[in-house]
């Protein structure tokens, strides 16, 4: 299954969620994963290489840097990958080379926050993806929510985004995410990840036994 992490708004946590889900699938469900790092910063690949240098154990999964213009060369190959292919996209939409990437998706995970600017960017992203790939399932995950903060437009945002896909349980902001690596899940975030990821896994990602 091809799983895209995208939003035209930068800073919503696409790369972090991609790593967290890869770790979650690998460690808690023993699912095989491959990450394609297509973000311009290549932050996932950088962290993966750092972890490989610091830890003796074998990596949980591979991380490949793929440039947008090279995607057409690999899109047929990744269909033959055994397991989930998680694709971290750049935070932009003004590039026609993204079209085949969107069209390759089975599942789109779109992190967002309950502020006006992020909501508008998220809505535009969902409209474009749905137009280009009517077969893909779009999910939205409220991410990096601050405890005790009142989000005045929360209900309105959920109602509108639900027209395009499912809004899955929110992921609260935690200091432990700053210690993120590609080999483990901090104990203090396991419960939070299960709250957000387990419904996603059971409904869309669980492979037939």
Keywords:
Rossmann fold; 209 residues; globular; 8-stranded parallel beta sheet; 40% helix; alpha/beta; single chain
Characterise the protein shown here.
The chain has helices at residues 14-28, 43-54, 71-78, 99-103, 116-132, 154-161, 187-205; strands at 2-5, 33-37, 62-65, 84-88, 107-112, 137-145, 166-167, 171-172. It has one domain: Rossmann fold. It has 209 residues and is of the alpha/beta class. Strands 1, 2, 3, 4, 5, 6, 7 and 8 form an 8-stranded parallel β-sheet that branches. Helix 6 links the parallel strand 6 and strand 7 (166-167).
Quick structural overview:
This protein is of the alpha/beta class.
Helix content: 40-55%
Major pleated sheet: 8 strands, parallel
Please tally the β strands and state the result. 8
Fraction in beta strands:
15-25%
The name of the CATH superfamily reads P-loop containing nucleotide triphosphate hydrolases
- Could you name the CATH topology? Rossmann fold
Q: Specify the overall morphology.
A: globular
Name of the CATH class: Alpha Beta
Write the CATH architecture name: 3-Layer(aba) Sandwich
Q: Structural class, judged by helices and strands?
A: alpha/beta
Helix and strand sequence: EHEHEHEHEHEHEEH
Mean pLDDT: 91
What Rg is obtained from the alpha carbons, in whole angstroms? 16 Å
- Report the total helices: 7
Report the uncertain regions.
Answer: none
Number of domains: 1
How far apart, in Å, are the first and last alpha carbons?
Answer: 15 Å
Oligomer: single chain
């Amino acid at each position: 299954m091809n799983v895209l992490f995208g939003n035209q708004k930068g800073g919503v946590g696409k790369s972090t969620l991609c790593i967290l889900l890869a770790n979650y699938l690998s460690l808690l469900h023993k699912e095989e994963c491959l990450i394609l790092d297509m973000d311009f910063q290549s932050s996932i690949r950088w962290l993966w290489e750092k972890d490989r240098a610091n830890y003796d154990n074998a990596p949980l999964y591979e991380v490949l840097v793929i440039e947008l213009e090279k995607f057409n060369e690999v899109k047929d190959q990744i269909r033959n990958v055994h397991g989930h292919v998680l694709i971290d996209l750049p935070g932009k939409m003004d590039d026609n080379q993204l079209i085949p990437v969107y069209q390759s998706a089975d599942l789109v995970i779109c992190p967002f926050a309950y502020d006006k600017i992020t909501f508008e960017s998220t809505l535009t992203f969902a409209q474009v993806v749905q137009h280009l790939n009517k077969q893909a399932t779009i999910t939205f995950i409220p991410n990096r929510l601050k405890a005790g903060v009142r989000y005045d437009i929360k209900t309105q945002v959920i109602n509108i985004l639900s027209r395009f896909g499912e809004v899955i349980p929110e992921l609260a902001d935690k200091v432990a995410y700053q210690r993120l690596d590609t080999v483990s899940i901090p104990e203090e975030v396991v419960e939070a990840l299960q709250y957000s990821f387990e419904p996603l896994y059971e409904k869309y990602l669980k492979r037939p036994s």
